[in-house]
């Protein structure tokens, strides 16, 4: 399995440093989920891992090799990336978008193969987008567009998947469908998957490994039961909460303690 790691990386935008001197080993063949408050650096870290953002210090390594020094096609064959709010040319159909996931695998003497067609169709089927294959992306709902982008990432057929808020715009049923799909890819095909998620209980349920970030650094990392504690939730989110066992999955379940109940007790 391909290994992905960051060693003492610093990342930011223009003159603003978001992440400074961060080191992280992504467990191969596992689902790693990044959590933390808004602005803590989760998406910035994912961009750094995916070579979208160049570190101002340190290095990201793919299978022991500095990722910045690898050919772009080599990286694209190994790692699929779904950023936040991706954009596509106007008039592009769903199938055309999903087909873009196969471009890293194209050869100059063979622009499209039966394998490409098969993987594109499979990606459309497993994301429930086959019926929309010939619809323009702009004509779809936000949730349908998100599923089309996920299908494109799956069609790329890479060993490593990086997804930034893949359940954005999806209703609860489709959120679970997408996370179940990623879990199946991980279990059945051994894909290494890194996801940024805001929903803590979904993160705890689906992660093999949780990374909680705070103000640009890793506050705590480990198994969900090690990370999801009342103390860590307070330190990372400034939120009082009770942690109980999820009655379905037996994973940690975060119950926020609202001020509403404190006020009602005082009255």
TL;DR of this structure?
By secondary structure, the protein is α/β, with parallel strands linked by helices.
Describe this protein with a few key phrases:
267 residues, alpha/beta, Rossmann fold, six-stranded mixed sheet, 12 strands, globular, ABC_transporter-like_ATP-bd, AAA+_ATPase, iron
| Biggest sheet details | 6 strands, mixed
Radius of gyration: 19 Å
Shape: globular
**CATH topology name:** Rossmann fold
Terminal CA distance: 59 Å
Class from helix and strand fractions: alpha/beta
- How many domain modules? 1
CATH architecture: 3-Layer(aba) Sandwich
CATH class: Alpha Beta
Q: List the strand order in the largest sheet.
A: 6-7-8-3-9-10
Question: What is the CATH H-level superfamily?
Answer: P-loop containing nucleotide triphosphate hydrolases
- Approximate helicity band: 25-40%
**Low-confidence runs of at least 5 consecutive residues:** none
- H and E string: EEEHEEHEHHHEHEHEEHHEEH
- DSSP helical segment count: 10
Average pLDDT number: 91
SS strand fraction: 25-35%
The count of strands amounts to: 12
Keywords: ATP-binding, Cell membrane, Ion transport, Iron, Iron transport, Membrane, Nucleotide-binding, Transport
Membrane topology: Peripheral membrane protein
Subcellular location: Cell membrane
Protein name: ABC transporter ATP-binding protein
